[in-house]
Amino acid sequence: METLWNGVCMEDSLFRLGTDSVACAWFAKFPKSAKVCDLGCGSGAIALMLLASDPSLTLTGIELMPRAAQTAKENAARNGLPFTVIEGDLRKIRDLLPAGSMDGVISNPPYFPVGSGAAAKGELAQARSEETCTLSQLTAAMGWLLKTGGRAVVVHRPERLAELIFHLKQEQLEPKRIRFVRHRLESPVSLVLLEARKGGRPGLQYEHDLILFDDQGETEEYKRMYHRHTKE
Description:
The protein is an alpha/beta fold. The protein has helices at 19-27, 45-53, 66-79, 122-128, 135-145, 161-170, 220-225, and strands at residues 2-3, 9-10, 35-39, 58-63, 83-87, 102-107, 146-156, 173-182, 189-198, 205-206, 210-211, 213-214, 217-218. Strands 3, 4, 5, 6, 7, 8, 9, 10 and 11 form a nine-stranded mixed beta sheet that branches. It has a two-stranded antiparallel sheet with strand order 1-2.
């Protein structure tokens, strides 16, 4: 097991905490005391990071892979936080949770269509490719769970941004905030962070890019994101 900050533990081979998950939790803004569902929660890292920032939230995670769901349950118990984990298939969301039961949803979903991306088998394929969850299935689950005005937050690859927005809008999820992630200022965009609102009006706010490294090494925002910033 690998122990990470804030008490999050994950098995090295499958659930290593990535910058995409950390950036997604850093980007997310949910109202106080909101009920939030992490779709495809893996080891529960995003949920625990959200709760570390705002203990008033109530988190529910849905995870298909039994080993990942068990790790998430162990993390929730170890930290004593309000995080319930459901081992289930988000494609069958209507059998798992009531419609309109969430103020927010968040997800770091598989990035690659089946047959593309890094070669993988078994559980790793489920985590990396859309073998068990396509973009349309993800956004359908988001649309089902969110009440009107609720917020959906997702991290994804930039080359699939148009497709992501299309599927969000199909579920009446209007993109409201967007932020691009770059390794360096001159680097191409490596990740896209997006927030949409259920039943929201058109109007998209572009936030300044999240730059991870500069000539001095890690940027100050990168350090703050990982809670490694210099204390004053």
